[in-house]
C-alpha cells in the first residue's frame, strides 16, 4: 500500500501530471455536461415563455377594445346595452359630465324617451365625489352606464366610439367655478380646452360623425352690463379664467 507521501509526491515525475490531467478532464466533462443541461433548460424556458406570450397575444386580440383595468369584454357588453336604442328614430348619445347635476338629469330624460345613453365622468373632487357616485348608481339602476375616465384620454374615447356608433355627443363636462381658477388654473385649461379638442378630434374621425351639442356658460358675457343677456351681446371681455376658457371653447367649436 503506497504511503501518504508516495500518493502526494509520486516518485515518477510524470505520474502526478497525468493523474492531475485526468482529474481535470473529468471535472471539465462534468462541468460541460452541467452547462449543457443548464443551456437546454434555458432554451426550454425561453420556448415556454414565447409560447405563453403568443397565447396571451391571441387572447388579447379578442379583447381589442378595453384593457383588463377597464373591465374588458364585460364592460364592452355593458356599454352596448346602455347605448341600445328603444324607440324608432332614436339617438345613441354619449353624455360627458353625466354624474353632474345637469348631466344626470339629461341622461335620465333621454333614456326614458327611449334613446341609448352612455355617460362619461372623471369624478373629480371639485364637487362631492360621493354625490356623483350616488348619481352614477341611480343612473345604473335605470340602465345607464357611466364610465369613469378623463376626456383627455384619446384612447378611451376611441374605444368607446369603436364599441358604439354614437349619433350624438352631449358635452357637459367642464371644470366649473370662478374662484377656484385662482388656485388651480391648469385644471381649467386641461378640462375646458384640451379635453374639448381631444373630444372634437375623436368625433371628427368617427364614422359616422356624431352631432355635437356643447354647453357654454353665461360667464362668457363677462363685464357686459346688458341684462338680460342676448346671443348678440359682446363676449370679448371675460371677467375670469373660467369665462375665458369657455369663450375659447366657443371659438374652437366654430373653427
Kindly describe this structure.
The protein has a 5-stranded parallel beta sheet, sandwiched between helices. The chain folds into 2 domains: 25-69; 73-215, NAD(P)-binding Rossmann-like Domain (Rossmann fold, 3-Layer(aba) Sandwich), CATH 3.40.50. The chain contains 9 helices and 5 strands. The model is unreliable at 7-18 and 51-69 (pLDDT under 50). The chain is 55% helix and 9% strand. The protein has helices at 4-8, 13-61, 72-82, 101-113, 129-141, 154-163, 180-183, 185-205, 241-254; strands at residues 92-96, 116-121, 145-148, 168-171, 211-214. By secondary structure, the chain is α/β, with parallel strands linked by helices. The chain is globular. InterPro entries: NAD(P)-bd_dom, NAD(P)-bd_dom_sf. It holds the Pfam family GDP_Man_Dehyd. It comes from Hibiscus syriacus.
Outline:
With 255 residues, the protein is α/β, with parallel strands linked by helices. It has helices at 4-8, 13-61, 72-82, 101-113, 129-141, 154-163, 180-183, 185-205, 241-254; strands at residues 92-96, 116-121, 145-148, 168-171, 211-214.
Strand order of the largest sheet: 3-2-1-4-5
Tell me the radius of gyration: 34 Å
Please give the share of residues in helix. 40-55%
**What is the CATH topology descriptor of the largest domain?**
Rossmann fold
Strand content: 5-15%
**Going by CATH, what is the homologous superfamily of the largest domain?**
NAD(P)-binding Rossmann-like Domain
What overall form do the CA principal axes indicate? globular
Number of β-strand runs: 5
The helix/strand order is HHHEHEHEHEHHEH
By CATH, the architecture of the largest domain is named 3-Layer(aba) Sandwich
Task: Please describe the biggest sheet, giving its number of strands, its sense, and whether it closes into a barrel.
Answer: 5 strands, parallel
Catalogue the unreliable spans: 7-18, 51-69
- State the end-to-end distance: 106 Å
Number of domains: 2
What is the CATH first-level class name of the largest domain? Answer: Alpha Beta
Amino acid at each position: 500500500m503506497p504511503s501518504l507521501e508516495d500518493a502526494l509526491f509520486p516518485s515518477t515525475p510524470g505520474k502526478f501530471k497525468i493523474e492531475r490531467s485526468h482529474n481535470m478532464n473529468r471535472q471539465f466533462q462534468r462541468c460541460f455536461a452541467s452547462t449543457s443541461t443548464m443551456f437546454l433548460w434555458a432554451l426550454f424556458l425561453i420556448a415556454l415563455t414565447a409560447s405563453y406570450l403568443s397565447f396571451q397575444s391571441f387572447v388579447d386580440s379578442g379583447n381589442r377594445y378595453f384593457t383588463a383595468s377597464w373591465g374588458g369584454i364585460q364592460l364592452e357588453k355593458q356599454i352596448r346595452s346602455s347605448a341600445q336604442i328603444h324607440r324608432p328614430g332614436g339617438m345613441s348619445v354619449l353624455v360627458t359630465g353625466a354624474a353632474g347635476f345637469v348631466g344626470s338629469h339629461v341622461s335620465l330624460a333621454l333614456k326614458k324617451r327611449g334613446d341609448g345613453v352612455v355617460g362619461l365622468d372623471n369624478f373629480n373632487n371639485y364637487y362631492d365625489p360621493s354625490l356623483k357616485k350616488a348619481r352614477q348608481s341611480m343612473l345604473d339602476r335605470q340602465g345607464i352606464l357611466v364610465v369613469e375616465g378623463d376626456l383627455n384620454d384619446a384612447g378611451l374615447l376611441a374605444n368607446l366610439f369603436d364599441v358604439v356608433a354614437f349619433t350624438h355627443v352631449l358635452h357637459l363636462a367642464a371644470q366649473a367655478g370662478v374662484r377656484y381658477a385662482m388656485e388651480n388654473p391648469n385644471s381649467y385649461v386641461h378640462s375646458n380646452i384640451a379635453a374639448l379638442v381631444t373630444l372634437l378630434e375623436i368625433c371628427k374621425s368617427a364614422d359616422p360623425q356624431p352631432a355635437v351639442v356643447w354647453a357654454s356658460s353665461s360667464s362668457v358675457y363677462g363685464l357686459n352690463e346688458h341684462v338680460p343677456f342676448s346671443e348678440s351681446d359682446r363676449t370679448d371681455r371675460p371677467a375670469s379664467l373660467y369665462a375665458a376658457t369657455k369663450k375659447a371653447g366657443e371659438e374652437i367649436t366654430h373653427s
